[in-house]
Amino acid sequence: MKYFTLVIVVCSLIFSSASLWANEAEPLILVMGEDSYPYQFVDEQGEPSGVLVDMWREWSKQTARPVMFVSRHWTDALAQLSVGDADLHIGMAVTQSRRERFAFAQPLSHVGTYLYLHRDLPQRLTFEALAPYQIGIVSGSSHEAELLKLSPKMRFKHYKNRHELLEGVLQGEIKVFAGMQGYLRNKKINKQVISLFPLSNRILIKQVSLRPAVNKSNVALLRQVNAGFAAIDKGRFDEIEEHWIGIKRQKNGLTIATTTNLEPFISLGGDDMPHGLYVDIWSLWSEKTGIPISFVTSEINQSLDQVKSGKADVHIGYPESDKFKTGLLRSQLLYQVKSRLHSYGKPIDSLQSLQGTRVGAVPTAPYLAELKLALPDVELKLYDSVTAMIQAAKEGHITSFVASSSWTHHYLVLQDAWSEFYPFPELEFVTDIYVLTSPQNLGLSNRLKTGFELIETQELAEIERKWILNHQDRIFESRLEKMLLSSEQLDYLKELKSIRVGYLKDWKPMEFSSEDGIFSGINRDVVDVITGQLGVNVEPVVFNEWQSLIDALIEGEVDIAGSVAEDADRKKTLLFSDPYWPSPWSLATPIEREAIFNVQQLAGQRLAIVEGYQLVNQLMGADYGIELVLVTDLNSGLNAVKEGKADAFVDKAINLASTLKHGDYAQLKMSVLADFSEQHSHFGVHPSLAKFIPLMNLAIKTLDQTKRQAIYQNWIQPVAIAPRESDTVKWCLSIILFLLLLVASLFVFRLLLAKERVKRSQLESQLSKLTNYDPMTGLANRCLLDDRLKQAVLLHSREQASFGVLFIDIGELKPVNKEMGHNVGDKLLKLVAEEMSGCIRRSDTLARFGSNEFVVILNKTKDLDLVCQVADTIIINLAKSFDCEDTKLNVRVSIGIAMFPADGDNVVELLKSADKLMYRAKQSGGNCYKSS
């Protein structure tokens, strides 16, 4: 019996071991986020990657348990784990709601979560001050719970995943969004986001731990997970994080080893802190990446040893070369130092004049071989430092020396000896200065490169101008002026030789033919910049009409044309350059009409527009209710308005302003269309020149603000017109006649002037009232409403406050007008307006928006409840009967409520939001209000 029992126990153990082995042979299903770079994401090949993925792969090796990664959106990943379709989540932040559903292992990594603020918002805002703004977050992320703990009043805009969130960020949908620290995988998007949302503006939400999660019922698996990770060497975790993040997990920034006494590149200031060109470049890198930096100073060889030993992460900048190798990795080209010949006492006439003389140099200079080739007939004498060479030159031991031009210039100015030395600019050597890191830390090298890619050349040029006195020694400034092209690109440009540029004959100031028939204007200057950079000739081709120009471009009769808007239809037949000039659309209307700032105000009116403009399709495709009047050119459009054939004319603001100013159009005025104020001009390019577009874009990048301003001022200045001879005679006669009559008319003039002042004051008052107020109700009209709304947006943005907009529709007026006549309807409308005026404060604005539509601006309303109370008051007061012509009449009121900035950060968005909500109230039967 004893042996039988033993056999049963042994068999049981065998079967249980086999069962355990079978279970452990099955791969664990690990669910993960698909776009949380660099912690957990799917790469370009569709493979799971990131910090946590590599840590789990180490766990799999350690435990001999296979794993399978499944990527999902955050909400889907949590749902999959919750229902048991996955065994584990590879790592997430712990929140109260998640703690109720899952059990968590020990943390694998830590990450900071931040609120990223738009550059237009003030710095150092508190969480409470962000209450008026919608905060963009990924649905299912931990950010929402953490932010509500900090400020319960926060409002959120949810996005399905990180990609959609970033699209919303770049499209201007939100001014604030929540995210993890780090950088984005897409370098182009990363650069765009950081330029709009500087890391210096971000606010720390919380430092969170990323922990694997399992269902609460699976405690055994949790113990296995913890045991497996505990058995892995912590140094391996450090290597993984260094690979992906570039910084060791125990550190909060970079330690940069640097030498000193290399003015103006590096030196110690009076505060014992490093200063100089290299220091400022690194400070800008830190600002762009959000990674803190600190400097450790020592002698040059010791600074290199600190990087080799791991006491410092990076060397600030060293002239590493193939001749002088340090054994460190060249991670980034930081700068290029120019070295030149300097002579004492008198300038060098030519290199031949140095034959038989002695020239000084430093032994570590990487250009020594080049120097010997350039000066084969001189004796080179080596010195330990530039200071020693300067002293040797003064004492006559050498006639000249080669050294860093900037360093020498700086030193000689400080020693008041600059006038005694003469640089020879015709002989120049360029030394590359590299950022050096440990060869083993490729992750750090990649992180450094990513950070430097965020810096614009213009920003580096501004730093350089601060430290490098001689413009000939500046590297970045010269890069703004010239372009580096490949041999293939240069060959293409040689074959191209010239391009045919189509332009309009009379479209000032963008493009036109001068009196001599020469292609002129802003577009000509931009074309000259492009062709000058690329060495291509221009063949101008003039057109009288815009449509003819576009047709010729499509047919290939010209190669490029300026000021072409990029849209989906044109992209089917044309290619486009990057934008090069802002080109908002504006309206010209009769001077007596109220100003128009958005397209909706043109409903039911005739709008003149040049045939072929891309805006024609947009206006026809949308339901604006506008009758389009097609014209051939700008002057034809203005004449159509002048002669009453159209109610308004739309064209580019810069051209419209110039023509109205210099043409015979005193009875017309201009207003900018807010709907289309962010438009930019592109060059339209025929597809046969596809290879030319990348080269054009490189040249367009050299158009900095200074160049654009110079071009603008060149063509916007008013043109002086020389008077004709007959005009001169007329003016002379007029002046003589005026002088003869002056004494006789002076007394009468003074009397008339007094009367004229009174009359003018009365007319101005009447004109102001007609311009800004509705003649029937006496309320503000749409012109004044637009102005008040713009002022409200500016004021409340500056003060970080909110305000409300009510869009009110008064129903039941049409039956009154039809049955009792418009006089009764107008009287009823006046009574309604008077009643609504009594429902708001004097500091608020009530405006008539349309025939039976009104808008209310409620300034400085702290929350939605106050706005709703006003809406309730209006509905209650308008629910009563009104006495009109001995008849009791009733109206039905529908109100839409929009809040700034939650429902819109600008005038157009606020009115759109309020209008939509008003229609929802109207569809609900009226006598109610709707809010978002």
From TrEMBL:
Q: Which CDD domains match?
A: GGDEF, PBP2_BvgS_HisK_like, PBP2_HisK_like_1
> Ranges for the GGDEF domain?
801-932
Q: Which SUPFAM superfamilies match?
A: Nucleotide cyclase, Periplasmic binding protein-like II
Q: Where is the signal peptide?
A: 1-22
Pfam families attached here? GGDEF, SBP_bac_3
Q: What keywords would UniProt list here?
A: Membrane, Signal, Transmembrane, Transmembrane helix
Query: Per its UniProt record, what InterPro entries does this chain match?
Result: DGC-Regulatory_Protein, GGDEF_dom, Nucleotide_cyclase, Rev_trsase/Diguanyl_cyclase, Solute-binding_3/MltF_N
Q: Which residues cross the membrane?
A: 733-753
Protein name listed in UniProt? Diguanylate cyclase (GGDEF) domain-containing protein
Q: Which organism is it from?
A: Shewanella psychrophila
